[in-house]
Amino acid sequence: QQQQQQQPVDGEDKEQMTVEHEEKHEGSGKEKKRKHAEQKLQQLQQQQGTRSKEGTVSSSKEKKQRAPETAKLGSGKAQAADELGKSNSGDGGSNSGGGRGSLFDKMRARLSGGRFRSLNEQLYTCKGDEALRLMQSDPSLFAQYHDGFQQQTESWPVQPVDQAVKFLGAKPPNLVVADFGCGDGRLAPRVKQKTHSFDLVSSAPHVVACNMASVPLDSASVDVAVFSLALMGTDYGLFLTEAARVLRHKGWLWIAEVRSRFTQEPDEEKDVGKANSQHLQPFLKCLARLGFTLQSLDASNKMFVVMVLRKLNVPTSNPSSIAWPGLRACMYRKR
């Protein structure tokens, strides 16, 4: 009786086990299909450069199947990272602090240089009052220009401001100096004389923003007027006329200007170093009408020429009648 009673039970167990087996088999098939779909989805996401965070792999067999793909992907990522590091290092080395500069830095420098050249051309081809309005409307342009200027001139063997410091170092400390177009005002802190600094934007506490054709100084109140690459604009003659106004009798006019500005062709720059040069004579004759006499001419620097003049004569009664020669705009090369 016990055996007869157990047989139905055994049959029911077998039937139940069969159902459970079929359900497991069906579930396993669905699970494989689901995981296969997830693998395809992950592959598509990987091709698009995204990271898939969905799904987990529970089967060791599937892990083994995915291992070669994962290794291949890891190798590809490592190679891409290595190539990116080389491009960012600037010299083919690793992307470390010792590199010459990252790709981002190079792109930023190129954009900065482009903005500088655009602003530079604009400032050389407009009048002083137009330049003042431009810079006052957006003072950040002034900072962009001078950042670009520093980058363009950093390779020069000698800086004009260093020459101006040397000149003033040989003069008495009780003289009064006016720095026309001072930029970021680097001259004043480096000399012993009292120095008035002027430019289109006040980039430092001691810099006064104004048009160089009208500075807030009394007539005959200054001993030295400095123009360090500052004869910008089509009406630059008005800046020099203003310098003649504020200078005392026997006052000094110190000018540093790019050599090519006085020539029409690049191969003529070597002639600018001569006082009797046909390229300099028109400019010096106009200064003579303002009462200035040339004292020295230094053309030892290949980038710029330095002229030192002195106000020894009476200026012409009508400075506005002086026909100043056109100076070439100083166009800096792409770096």
Description:
The chain is an alpha/beta fold and 335 residues long. Helix content is 45%, strand content 14%. It has helices spanning 2-47, 60-89, 103-124, 128-137, 140-153, 160-169, 236-246, 281-289; strands at 176-180, 194-199, 207-209, 222-228, 247-258, 292-298, 304-311. It has a seven-stranded mixed β-sheet with strand order 3-2-1-4-5-7-6, with helices on both faces. A hairpin with a 5-residue loop joins strand 6 and strand 7 (304-311). It is elongated.
Fold blueprint:
Blueprint lengths: L1 H46 L12 H30 L13 H22 L3 H10 L2 H14 L6 H10 L6 E5 L13 E6 L7 E3 L12 E7 L7 H11 E12 L22 H9 L2 E7 L5 E8 L24
Parallel strand pairs: 1-2, 1-4, 2-3, 4-5
Antiparallel strand pairs: 5-7, 6-7
Helix pairs in contact: 3-5
Overall 3D shape: elongated
The biggest beta sheet is recorded as: 7 strands, mixed
Work out the number of β strands.
7
Strand content bin = 5-15%
Unreliable residue runs: 1-15, 50-98
- Average of per-residue pLDDT values: 76
Helical content class: 40-55%
- Cross-sheet strand order for the largest sheet: 3-2-1-4-5-7-6
Q: What is the count of DSSP helices, taking H or I runs of 4+ residues?
A: 8
Measured distance between first and last alpha carbons? 105 Å
Question: What is Rg?
Answer: 38 Å
SS-based class: alpha/beta
Oligomer: single chain
Q: H/E element string?
A: HHHHHHEEEEHEHEE
